[in-house]
Structure formats: C-alpha cells, structure tokens
Amino acid sequence: MTQLGRLILFPFLLALTPYPALPQGEDGKKTSGQHHRRHKTLRKTSDALKIQPAEPLRHPDVAYLHPPVNASGVSPHTTMAIRFSSVHFNKKKATLLALRDGIRVEGSVTGRHHRAKVNVADDRRTIVLESRAPFSLGERVAVTIDGSQGPHPNHAPIPGFEWSFTIRHEAPPDPARSISAFSSIYGNATLRAQQAGQDGLLDGRTTWAPSKEWGAPGRRVTKSPSNYRTLRKHMPPTIEVLGPVRKGATAGGHIFTESMADAEHPYGSVLMILTEEGEPVWVQREPKNTGFANWSTRDLKVLDNGMLSVHRPSNAGFTLMDKTYKQRRYVRIKGGYRTNSHDLAVRAEDGHALVMGEDIRKGVHGTIIQEQDANGHVVFEWNSWNHLPNQFRDSVFQKRNGEWDHMHPNTLSWHPDGNIILSLRHLSEIIKISRKTGEVMWIMGGKSNQFDFVNDHGFSMQHDARMPAPNKITLFDNGNLRTPRESRAVEYVVDEARKKVTKVWEHKHDPPMFGMACGNVQTLPNSNKVISWGGFFFSHPKNAPFYTEVTRSGEQLMEMRFVNSFQLQSYRSFRHDWHGAVPHFPPTLLLEDGHLFYSWNGDTTTSKWNVFANDVRIASHLRTKFEHNTPVRPDNKCVKYFVVALDKAGQRLRTSNIVVSQACKKGDTPKTKATENT
C-alpha cells in the first residue's frame, strides 16, 4: 500500500486498535521516562495547536454565527452563516437579491468576493453565504451586513452587523476522500501483528468460542441459501442462524448489516437486508477493494425519516435511498473538510442531517459537526478546536506515524431536547453539545468525567452511544482498557441535573466476547435488544456472531454469524421494518437447465408470482422465499417467458425481463403482454 493510502485511512485503522493509554513497564506500571516522553509530546502539541475558545455572541439580535467572531484556523472553503433572533425571511428571488446587495464579504488578500451565493435556510431565520472562490491561506476575512438599508418591501429590516475571522495557514487535506477509520500501521500485516502483540491483544486468550447452544438438542441451526442463481453477481456470504427460540419472540422486521473483510483480502463488502432466517431480501455487493481503497462501505440502516442510508468511500459520503432503492439524497461534510464515515443522523420532521468531519491540523485530527437542512445548507457547525480544552490530556492514544486521531468521534445524534450527543472513543467520553451556542454542556466518562456512576465502573472506548429518551443512554462498551477485556451492551438512567448515571441493564455474551472495535446496541419497539459484537479481523475469531437479539431479562432469542474461510465481520447490525419496498428495477428472470429462475432483489411487497409462456399463464404460486424456480418443458417452437409480481390484493407490481427458448431466432421478439406492460 502506498504511503498516501495509509495516511488517508489512518483514522479507521486507529479506531479499531485498543492501544493502552501509555506504554507499560515490565511490571505493568508506567515508567517515569515514559511519563516524561508523554508529557513532552503533549507540550509540543499544545504549543503548536492552541485550543481557541469561541468568543461569546454579544449582539442581542444575533442567535448564531459561523465562523465565530475572531476564529482562526478556518477552512479556505468555509461557508458563512448568521441566524437572527427574531427576523424571518421568505425565499423569493427578490429577497435573496436584496440580501446579497446588503452583505459584503472581503478578504485581506483576495479582496471583495462579489456576488457571493446567498441562501435562506429552511428555518427562514438563517442566512447562509457561500463564496464562489476559496479564500487565501492566512488571510483575514470580514463579513459586513448593512443594517442601514432600512425596510425593504421583500423582507424585514435586518440589524447591521460585522465580524471577521482568519483562514488557516496550512492547506487542508484533500476533502474528496472520507475519513474511514484506520492507522497507517495497518497497511502492513506484519506490522499489524507486531503492534497488536505489543498491546497485549495476541496473548493467547480465547475471546470467543462457539457456545454449546449451537449444537444443543432442540436448538434450530440453519444456513442461508448460497446458490441462488439470480444473485450470482451479488451473492452474500453464507450465514448461520441459531434460533429463534420460539415463534413470535423476536421483534419482527428485517435485519440490516454488511460483511467486511480485512483489507489484506481483495473482498467486496456486501450490503444486506435479511429475514431472521437468514434469507436475503436485498443484497448489493460493492466493488472489490485494493488495500484500503473502497474498503469501508458500511453502516447500512434505516434513518428516522424512513430513508435507507449507507456510507461509501467511493463517493466520500452517505447515500440515502427510498424504498425503490433510488438515490434521493447525498450527504457529506461541507466547507472543504473530510467526511467521517462512522455515523449519520437524519431527523424525521424536517430532514435535517447531522454529519461529522475531520479538521486536520499538523496531522492532528480535530472534529467537525455540521447540521445541514434538507437542502444541504449548513445551519450549525461545531469545531473541537474551539472547545474541549482537555482533549489532548484526556486522550489514551499517542501520535503515530505523523498522525494523531486523539478523539475519534464515532457516534452522533440528537438529544431528545434538541441538543447534540457525540461519542469520542479515544477519550472514552460522551459529550452533550448545545445546539444554540456550541458549548459543551457536560462530559460523561473518561478523564474529564463529570458524573457519578452508580452500580457500575463506567465504559471504555465505546461505540453507538445514544440517548433515545431524556433520561436514558444506551451504548456498546467495547471494554478495551479494562482487564480482562470483555465487551457488553449497557443501558443507564441519567440524571443530568444531579450528574448521576445509574446502570439499569447490561448484557454480556456467553461465552465472554471481546469486540475490540465496532459494535452497537439497538432497543426494539417490543423492548428486545439487538447487539452487534464488533471485533477486528486479525484479532477476531472466525464465525463470531454479528447479530444477537435478547430480551430485556437477558434471554437470548437468536443469533447470526458468517460462515467463511477468513474473518468476516460487520460494522453494526440493526433490525428495522422495511415492508412496502418496491424496487425501481424489474424482477430478474433466467432460463437455465430447463427451469425458470426468478427473484426481485429488494422487494418486500410481492405476495404472488404468475409465470407466463407466450402470454399464457403456466404457473401461479405464493412468494415464500427470495428465489423461486419453475420447470418448463422443451419446446421446438419459439417461446417467450416472463413473470409478473403481484401484491396481496392481486394487483400487478412489475413484469420481469423476457427470456426465450432455444428455438427462437435472434431478433425474434413478437409482442407479448410483458413487452406492452413492462
């Protein structure tokens, strides 16, 4: 792998590596020399990269400003935004022209940025400015809003306001590549194993072994089909399913996951929607990776707005699809930053998206959060360089190979009160951020912890921390920094006012499971929990489970694992309702070995198949699995075959492609109902 490739994927490799906070002496204690080197490194970093607290807004009419007043280190591609406390705007062209005429953007080097693009966000209070050319490195930029223009027939008068900020001095990394999660050391398998040995990962312990349940009498173990002919190009890995233990015990719906392999293997990640029997519903095999190139395709899930989303490194962002599998939206970080691939949230009521990015300065990875409205306008931006004064001290990671992913954000969501929850894995911290001011409202976990933990020791290098209710937080505790290393899913009741966290539920695998990275926990509508156990390839046992569903009382209802010759794993796994999906492409039909083989990849609406030969129905049957087949007799005449998908009401959904018998001459395609109605 090239050095460029290693640097590009530094954060994802680093994310999955449980390095101890400091190098250890032979007795397990940190030596004074190691302490000295650690503090010296921190001093150098602090001297080179100052945390600059954002100046508070002092104008009574201004509710939000970006970049902050006198901010430094700003991206040359930044957008600018100002939100007024009481002024509302319409989006008529005349209004936008009037706003543009009353706003000036001027750089100390680039001069006046004439005709900067002006937009009104969907809250009708936020003006978003976008220069048509980047700013120069190191220049001072002033934004002036002319309040002397007075009342205008197309919008309310706006207060006069002026602020300035400074563009960063070093060129930012290429924003066309997303931050996908791994350290440059992991471009080489030998170095990987050596480093893992130094960190105590490969110490001979068994982190997972198949439970006796997998072979116990009366327990149903099934394997997913692996020979569907209509899925040859997208064949998923074989999946082994334990359970479910009884009918109706699970929450229902479909299972969403992906298979990922170590980047040493030229393997195309497979996106999958499955039934709980392991039967495919929708399968999409991605292009094979070359090392880490195109490697981190992941996080397949249904968003709160009902859209299906997935991160693809090939387009450096998140693709959102509807139930026809058409792309309806594309989300990536704005302002010239790199998109972070770990998480995306989209709100149901207004389509606003929360997305993360990386502001890399001198090889150190700062964290960007943006809230974008449904039209992609940035209406809120938070930058760790303006907050978290203890971020270097709190990190358990040291700078490696010229890069330092000292925080590693991996989960982002809205708090029920409208503020923002951010998980920082390398700090073992969860923070709450004010949506209005950007200030850090509290820190849970890690060295800057502000909470008392009741009935629990706290969490370590966590994933998937969320607050589904005002007083509840769930997370997957990877447990990297605990001895012995063991992962768990955990739920806490949170008293934010009294700064108290009480454990009310946890689940550990039997036998014990250690997922050194990745993983998640999801609460289902019937209170069951889905747990994905994470892992990381070379330390990850073959055939370890990627999906477990348990009751709140801890009863294991079902489990899934990949059956493979090398270590496949998933990033996260979910269960969602995906009924009513009707793909925009037609069903697939093949004629092979005297049989018609047919399926409709992604369909969850078809109830019945009708099979036709030259417009005569020759078979009709219920749809009971992904692929069906119907035998056809040899015929010396030209026969055109097609199938029609019907819904529960017997209404036609879509007609397949046409296949023909061997007796048909090339170009012989007489009209059929299929050609008329497809």
From TrEMBL:
Biased composition (Basic residues): 32-43
InterPro entries assigned: Arylsulfate_ST, Arylsulfotransferase_bact, Quino_amine_DH_bsu
One GO MF term attached to the UniProt entry: aryl sulfotransferase activity
Signal peptide residues on this chain, from the entry's feature table: 1-23
Keyword terms, alphabetized: Signal
Region (Disordered): 24-43, 209-231
Pfam families assigned: Arylsulfotrans (PF05935)
PANTHER family linked to this entry: ASST-DOMAIN-CONTAINING PROTEIN (PTHR35340:SF5), PQQ ENZYME REPEAT PROTEIN-RELATED (PTHR35340)
Name of the protein: SbsA Ig-like domain-containing protein
Organism of derivation: Vitrella brassicaformis (strain CCMP3155)
